[in-house]
From TrEMBL, chains A, B:
<dbReference type="InterPro" id="IPR036663">
    <property type="entry name" value="Fumarylacetoacetase_C_sf"/>
</dbReference>
<dbReference type="InterPro" id="IPR011234">
    <property type="entry name" value="Fumarylacetoacetase-like_C"/>
</dbReference>
<feature type="domain" description="Fumarylacetoacetase-like C-terminal">
    <location>
        <begin position="83"/>
        <end position="323"/>
    </location>
</feature>
<dbReference type="GO" id="GO:0003824">
    <property type="term" value="F:catalytic activity"/>
</dbReference>
<feature type="domain" description="Fumarylacetoacetase N-terminal">
    <location>
        <begin position="1"/>
        <end position="78"/>
    </location>
</feature>
<dbReference type="InterPro" id="IPR041072">
    <property type="entry name" value="FAA_hydro_N"/>
</dbReference>
<dbReference type="Pfam" id="PF18288">
    <property type="entry name" value="FAA_hydro_N_2"/>
</dbReference>
<dbReference type="Pfam" id="PF01557">
    <property type="entry name" value="FAA_hydrolase"/>
</dbReference>
<protein>
    <recommendedName>
        <fullName>Ureidoglycolate lyase</fullName>
    </recommendedName>
</protein>
Length: 330, 330
């Protein structure tokens, strides 16, 4: 099934079930009002949502109406945990080489992960608000999963069983704020503003054999100002699968239902696939010519991130955002 | 007023109001069942809780009963944001010098902050579960605040107005896992397991003139295995006050109601105050003798963290935890 959260003026929005082809939707009222409730009590609530989903897909849901992604919040508008990884080592290597930083050998065997802010996510069509273009505004197209409860010390295999939903993410990054933050030694704070997620989050059965070995074997499409800049394969070059990422995180703690785990920027060694973030394009330019020539995003720029099934149908809906200046009242 | 959350088998527990002297408590049923609800709608709900608090303090609340800290979850058992700082530079300098790491000059003017896991907090008397003593289990006694909504670009002064509640934290750290994680460049993940919080969170008016300039001017007491090891002054040496910490965090994003901000380990230059984490004691030993002689916590060790008002009454109740081995089923 496919789940989304409609804006209703509240902090958590209204849970809706969306048809497989993303054409129609139906309020989940009577079953659950918020996605977190469902994740907290999955075994009881998800079969009821599944019944509604089937009725909707068969055109038999009584109060179905047209699905509009622009009315969506993030599937989880706020979450208790958002851990992002950097599971595509090609991305890490490119970006670090370009800034002359080391790539520790440990990254081959131990995933790079960091915790992000989960109190204020963006909907798929919400503006990327920034006070200044000088921050170096970049998109990062990623795959993300939402988990069930996963116990401390879970193995990678056990952790795979804890994946409930899959979605796309735009992990907006402020590149020019990163050097100073990383120099302090504790990772990102200001340089990772609010993250946006795709209109719908989907259960694994919706993905068919595109979900295999804890990876999503699909092409992640990124279009910047209407121009397709990335057609990156999300499956084969993900060095650590989602089960391995979750298991790494759970070595010393439990992960509770509704936690979101990100893959990091999807990245391919073969540069003909393009890029899922501008930093990689700039890294390639720097390594070739000694300096980057592609600028980061400007106010008014747009980014569209989407993944289609082999039948050409959009699986998660598209993230479609515009960079907008933050107006500060005098 | 003083608020706590009683265990009831659910993920979020039951909100209770606690008397000023921590002797009695009363369910907040009829007003709100969970603390996050109150933070989401503070202006409507907090006056009702305040009325109940006054009745309780006057011995007039009808269904009051004895307050038992051991029945408490963290005031917010799970939160949408947990950002910890390292606002006492003496702590940063000690720990970094001991491991031969640089202390960047930028730390004098720009606070060191990092995001932690907020999906699975520990109650004040919950065990610290660890799979191995070899992780280097340490306590960190801290002050923490819970915020209202704070807008992107809020000034330090504006951010101070967004502080709703104050509590204590034990930011458990696994010291021996840190070097490998920090070498990767993105901060902590495995080395910061679940954080514990004091039994009650209190509004600023309960603190009187101990709350001044965004700092808590009280002595934070830490007792390790029953021996008082820390009597650290939390006020004067906090290099960045809570408004400055929140404002720093909000430079590029909103902070939403129910976010928790930590001070970092409370630390004094004058070593006669003792220590709020073992790492500082070991750092002093290393600088003096070339090697630490105090070992980290062992299974069975206990830690008690508390702050008393000038009248000698415990303000937040005590964090009292034991380190317990995690048993893994075969």
């Amino acid at each position: 099934m496919k789940l989304a959260t409609y804006k209703d003026g509240s902090r958590d929005g209204q849970l809706v079930v969306v048809s497989r082809d993303l054409s129609t939707t139906h309020y989940a009222t009577g079953i659950a009002s918020r996605l977190q409730q469902v994740l907290d009590d999955w075994n009881f609530m998800s079969p009821q949502l599944q019944d509604l989903s089937e009725a909707l897909n068969q055109g038999k849901a009584r109060h179905a109406f047209a699905f509009e992604p622009a009315r969506c919040m993030a599937p989880l508008p706020r979450a208790y945990q958002w851990v992002d990884a950097s599971a595509y080592l090609n991305h890490v290597e490119l970006v670090r080489k370009a800034r002359g930083a080391e790539v520790p050998a440990s990254l081959q065997t131990s995933p790079l992960m960091y915790q992000g802010g989960s109190d204020d996510f963006l909907g798929p069509c919400d503006d990327i608000l920034a006070a200044s273009e000088a921050f170096g505004i970049d998109f990062e197209a990623e795959i993300a999963v939402i988990t069930a409860d996963v116990s401390m010390r879970a193995s990678a295999e056990q952790a795979l069983d804890g994946i409930r939903l899959v979605m796309l993410a735009n992990d907006v990054s402020l590149r020019n704020l990163m050097p100073d933050e990383l120099a302090k030694g504790f990772g990102f704070v200001q340089s990772k503003p609010a993250t946006a997620f795709s209109p719908v989050a989907v259960t694994l059965d919706e993905l068919g054999d595109a979900w295999k070995g804890g990876r999503l074997h699909l092409t992640l499409q990124s279009s910047w100002n209407g121009r397709k800049v990335g057609m990156c394969e999300a499956g084969p070059e993900m060095n650590f699968h989602f089960g391995e990422l979750i298991s790494h995180f759970c070595k010393t703690r439990n992960l509770r239902a509704g936690s979101i785990i990100g893959s990091g920027t999807v990245s391919n060694k073969n540069a003909s696939h393009g890029y899922s973030c501008i930093a990689e394009k700039r890294a390639l330019e720097t390594m070739k010519d000694g300096a980057p020539k592609t600028a980061y995003m400007k106010f008014g720029d747009t980014i569209r991130i989407e993944a289609k099934g082999r039948d050409g149908v959009s699986l998660f809906g598209a993230i479609e955002q515009e960079v907008v200046p933050l107006l500060i009242e005098p």
